[in-house]
Design brief:
The protein is of the alpha/beta class. The radius of gyration is 19 Å and the shape is elongated. The protein has 11 helices and 4 strands; from the N terminus they run H-E-H-E-H-H-H-E-H-E-H-H-H-H-H. A 4-stranded parallel beta sheet has the order 1-4-3-2, with helices on both faces. The termini are far apart.
Length: 232
C-alpha cells in the first residue's frame, strides 16, 4: 500500500505544525459515499493537508498524483499520471509513447488516452488521488481525459480530486448521477471555534479568549490567515 509519512509530533508551538482535524476527515468520509470526491476551495484552505490526512487513514491501497506546472499539457499530464501509478502499473511508462502516438490524430486525444490508462489499471481496486488539479485545468483536453478515465473506472476505483477550480470537469453530471454526493468546499475547511481553541491550547502559551475571538473575527477561520495571525 502506498503510504504517506505520518504527521510529525509538534515541536514548539503547535500552530507551526499541521494538525489533524477529525471533523474535516469525517466530512471527506461522508463525501466518499460517492465514487468521486471533490475538494474545491481557493488557495490557503489546506486542501492538500486534508487530502494527505484522509489518505493516511485509509485501509486500502491508494495512489497519488501531485500535479505540477509541467503537467499542463495532455501529454505532460498523462505522463505524470503514468509516473504516479507506475509503482503498481510499470507498463504505463513503457507504453506511453506508443499510446500518445496512436491518439495524436484522434478527434479527442484525451478520451483515447483515458481508454489506454483505464485498460492498464483495470485490476486496480483502491483510491486514486489527484492533488492541485487546477495547475492543469486550463487545458480542456486534460479535463476530458480525467472525466473519461473516471467514467471507465469508477466501478472499481475511488477517485478524489483536490483543486481550486473544477470548471471544466462534469461536476453537474456527476452530482446528477450520484457519482459525487457533494463538494467538500471552503466552508468545510474553515477552522471552527473549537478547532481554533484546540490549536491555541496545544501551544506553550495559549492565547486568551479575547485574543482568539479577535483572530477568528479577523480571519473568518481562513486557515492560512489564521496560521499567520497565531504566529504573530
Amino acid at each position: 500500500m502506498t503510504r504517506l509519512a505520518d504527521v510529525a509530533r509538534p515541536v514548539g508551538p503547535a500552530f507551526f505544525t499541521p494538525i489533524i482535524r477529525p471533523r474535516v476527515l469525517q466530512r471527506i468520509d461522508e463525501a466518499a459515499a460517492g465514487r468521486v470526491v471533490l475538494i474545491v476551495a481557493p488557495a490557503g484552505y489546506g486542501k492538500s493537508l486534508a487530502l494527505s490526512h484522509w489518505l493516511n487513514q485509509q485501509n486500502r491501497e491508494f495512489l497519488r498524483f501531485d500535479v505540477q506546472p509541467e503537467h499542463n499539457t495532455l501529454l505532460g499530464f498523462v505522463r505524470g499520471v503514468a509516473e504516479a501509478l507506475s509503482p503498481a502499473f510499470p507498463s504505463l511508462l513503457t507504453t506511453i509513447a506508443t499510446a500518445a502516438q496512436s491518439s495524436a490524430s484522434a478527434a479527442n486525444p484525451g478520451i483515447e488516452m483515458a481508454r489506454w490508462v483505464a485498460a492498464n489499471i483495470e485490476d486496480f481496486d483502491g483510491v486514486v488521488a489527484f492533488d492541485d488539479f487546477h495547475r492543469a485545468a486550463d487545458d480542456a483536453e486534460i479535463s476530458r481525459f480525467v472525466a473519461s478515465l473516471i467514467t471507465r473506472t469508477k466501478s472499481r476505483v475511488q477517485w478524489i480530486i483536490a483543486t481550486r477550480t473544477a470548471l471544466d470537469l462534469p461536476v453537474a453530471s456527476w452530482l446528477a448521477y450520484g457519482d459525487v454526493h457533494f463538494l467538500v468546499g471552503d466552508r468545510d475547511l474553515t477552522f471552527s471555534d473549537e478547532e481554533t481553541h484546540d490549536l491555541s491550547g496545544r501551544s506553550g502559551e495559549p492565547l486568551s479568549e479575547t485574543a482568539l475571538r479577535e483572530i477568528m473575527e479577523a480571519t473568518a477561520g481562513w486557515p492560512v490567515a489564521l496560521s499567520l495571525a497565531l504566529r504573530s
